[in-house]
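Lab notebook, bench 4. The sequencing result for the construct came back, and we need a structural model before the next group meeting so we can plan mutations. Quick request posted to the team channel:

Model the 3D structure of this chain.
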Amino acid sequence: MAPPRLRAPSPRPTALLSACLLALAAFALAALVAAVVWTVFAHDGDRLRVLVGTAACWVAAIAAWALVRRAERSGAGHRWVLGTIVLGLLAAGGASMSAPPSTSNDSARYAWDGIVQKAGISPYRDVPASDALADLRPAWLFASRDGQRCETAAPGGHFPTGDVLTDSVPGGEPLCTAINRPRVPTAYPPVAEAYFGAVRLPLPAGVGWIAFQAVGLVLALAGTLLLARALPRAGIPVAYAALWAWNPLVLLEAVNNAHVDALAAVLLAGAALALGARRVGRSGILFGLAVATKVIPAAALPGMLRDRPRRFAAAAVGTVGAVYVPYVLASGPAVLGYLPGYLSEEGYSSGGDTTRFSLPGILLPPGAALVVGVAALLAVWAGVWLARHRLEPAVAQAVSVGWALVIVCPSYAWYALMLIPLALIARRPEFLVVPAALEAVSATVGTGAGPMVSRAAMAAAAVVLLVAAMARRRARRRPQRGPAPSAYSQGLPRAKRAA
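Done. Here's the predicted structure in token form:
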């Protein structure tokens, strides 16, 4: 008697499971949208609401990512997963744009620099409070002042973060503005200034903060699509692109607060991917553009000097020099703007800021913490450079940037935007703890709990990174037993696993 034929299992249960998981992810994304709205409508000074709201955003985003990741493992197609990621970004990004910048007024300076450049004036030459620029001042950025009160129709001022009370230069007329540091020139490098000018060029002066928020959402989408294309090529599931797209730091800082760091992050990610593909010249150009957008991507340099370092350095330096030329011709030595003063004011050159170098500051006074912190930072960079031929390029870059942020501890969480793509490309998700820690620091800076929170957050981030590094080292040394690990467990996508 012939044995009964075995029927192939029906694919329907798997497809149904994937659909259910994506539906649950949609509910988690709805919770993320609600948390974003609740957070961005926080009033100035309500730091507790910002901190709680940001934590809620992290919980919802991680839950949504876990569901999409599980759906991908269950057989959900690439298009379904990517479509869910993009739609989730658009929904949460739209929620981020539903309120003015909630915790930062940096985009007010962006808008002013763009307006000034549109008028053919260098932003490095005149300060925002200058009487020479009085005719360029839009009502949504400037107002007259009655004593210690701003005469503006917006409750609480132009931005939720509050207005700056100042006097015009040199007339001394009482003035109120949303721009921080209105009596000093801009501190932003040329690519950032070109970006500000390009955003404002087609717009009338009366269009407010929504312009940079919209472009911030476009940059977040560009980063998502860049990762969605690059990760599968590196054997990483496309669902990991959601860790950028739905990251609260991206939604709150790149979109709501519209920080230019999003542009630097996308450029640096492009440089890392180009270097991984051995396109050294293109990588150097993108890296130079990233550094000329915001200086902090220079922290990735030790991880970039791998293949043909001279060619890379020539491309990067040449790019930085080229973008500076027009502004040098227009402004001369003033092209540095307020950058040196900003570094001193923020405690980078003196260690005077109580949140700066918080990790060594746990045991040392500020001056000594600065010395030890700089020495530790140089040691990390030297170690990465010496090990550059043993480390994958993206890993070297993630280590260089991640540990730089942990050691220096900037007060502003958006500096960590550039780390997120590097961590994903390098398969080092543990580095995502650094943006989360810096968000806690940023939410409490200027309060009595600021120094304590910064030290605790940076210490926790350092412990997580060290434990993850030791676990990876033990895993490499452990002899393999039993059957070889599946392609999926190594992070390969379903198509390669089937092959």
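Confidence is low (pLDDT under 50) at residues 482-499.
Will bring this to the meeting.
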